[in-house]
Design a protein that fits this description.
The chain is mostly helical. The protein is built from four helices and no strands. The chain has helices at residues 6-32, 36-64, 83-94, 100-137.
């Protein structure tokens, strides 16, 4: 089995938890929503999360060179809820009496948080590729010094 970095494991775990728990969240929203159109919309969004999970399974298989990404994570690492979903469930409990509009707002927030999660992941991967290309193009130098001006691009 190939060894993968903790960063890659965390990215896989975050993506999977986001989709699995997003599906649970949208199904829960469909259950508590009284309006039939709202129920249909939330069920549709839940099914979209399943499609995303299938896409990630294929993508992770290509990246890791293995069809089964699960062997890279222990089962307990995939337990629990994604922090974004936990936060939105708490908000939904607080806003319970406010109806479908609030549920839609919470669902939209979940999707925006997911977009931000993947944007940050994408940015970090692009930055890593940039660093590797920089190192590769300067590998003939006897002494490698990383230009500190690039460090301001990452806020950790």
């Amino acid at each position: 089995m190939a060894t993968i970095s903790q960063q890659v494991k965390d990215a896989i775990k975050g993506a999977i938890l986001l989709e699995v728990n997003g599906r649970k969240f949208f199904n829960h929203a469909a259950d508590v929503t009284k309006h039939e159109s709202g129920k249909k919309m939330f069920r549709f969004l839940a099914e979209e999360e399943v499609k995303h999970l299938k896409t990630f399974t294929e993508l992770f298989g290509q990246i890791l060179g293995s069809k089964d990404w699960r062997k890279h994570l222990s089962s307990h690492e995939l337990e629990g809820e994604a922090p974004l979903v936990e936060k939105l469930k708490e908000r939904m409990k607080r806003e319970e009496g406010k109806g479908e509009t609030e549920a839609i707002s919470i669902g939209m927030q979940l999707e925006m948080d997911a977009i931000n999660f993947f944007f940050e992941l994408h940015f970090n991967l692009l930055f890593l590729i940039f660093i590797l290309l920089y190192i590769y193009t300067h590998k003939m130098a006897k002494r490698f010094t990383f230009p500190t001006r690039f460090l301001v691009l990452v806020d950790y």
